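Input record (Table S2, row 276):
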Amino acid sequence: MTHALEAETALTDGVRHGVITIDGAGKDYLALDGNVVRGLSPVSLTIERGAFVSVVGRSGCGKSTLLRLVAGLEKPTSGTIRVGAERVDGPPDSARYVFQNYNESLLPWRTVGDNVRFGLRHGHGASRVSKAQEDELIREHLEEVGLGGTFNRYPSELSGGMQQRVAIARALAARPELLLLDEPFSAVDALSRGTLQDLVLRIWKEHGLTVLFVTHDIEEALYLSQRVIVLREKGGGIERDVTVDIPYPRTQVDFREDPRYLRLRREVLSLVVGAE
Ligand SMILES: Nc1ncnc2c1ncn2[C@@H]1O[C@H](COP(=O)(O)OP(=O)(O)OP(=O)(O)O)[C@@H](O)[C@H]1O
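Output record (adenosine-5'-triphosphate complex):
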């Protein structure tokens, strides 16, 4: 195959499979004191359309940097990133990002319904519909994340877990193909966290999304994902790409007793602890 034909095939495959293709992408930051800080050594990674992939590693290993590069919120110092056939150079239209801190995710002066409306109006291939149709769609999205009846409330009137559900509903309203989640549940209590994990799994399946999920919680990463990318300390790049070959549906209690999970937890834990 000629190079031109190979490139062409790669592009059409990219469109068809909606892959994230990271090719030697790395990031060095210029710190305020003028020193260069390694955010992430160059990494290469392909994520298939419809995959659920998590990124784990110690604090400062570059998890958020990797996600922000894919989200187009940072420019790589080296290498390239593509979402589908498009080279990332700013936030891709087909991707939505949910932050760790729900206080930053939502517009506090807008009602829950209007926060979701924002997602609807600024969505992927958004088309104008009447206000009544919009309201109907917003109510459906809120129902989907278990927040029926909160349309006219303000974010500050909701618990942290509920606010994160609003952020997810708003992201879904934008009809993304790719959902990027940066430690979205780290600030909520353990029980709400389990429920939110199951919500994300349901949404992933029902909407056929590709999910890239950053967490410091190895158990969470294994429970959710088909693949867990372990990063080396201090922006050192990829230590291991671990396949989680345990079928879905998974349930919180059974999954954690599965011998395959216990083996993988041991493997990933020792990689993270040993990734120095
Ligand atoms: N804007 C920035 N300016 C300078 N250095 C930065 C910036 N953002 C990140 N860094 C540095 O890049 C490295 C990787 O940071 P990053 O936030 O990606 O790590 P992380 O694995 O997500 O950490 P955590 O688990 O603590 O959130 C760290 O050393 C961090 O201090």
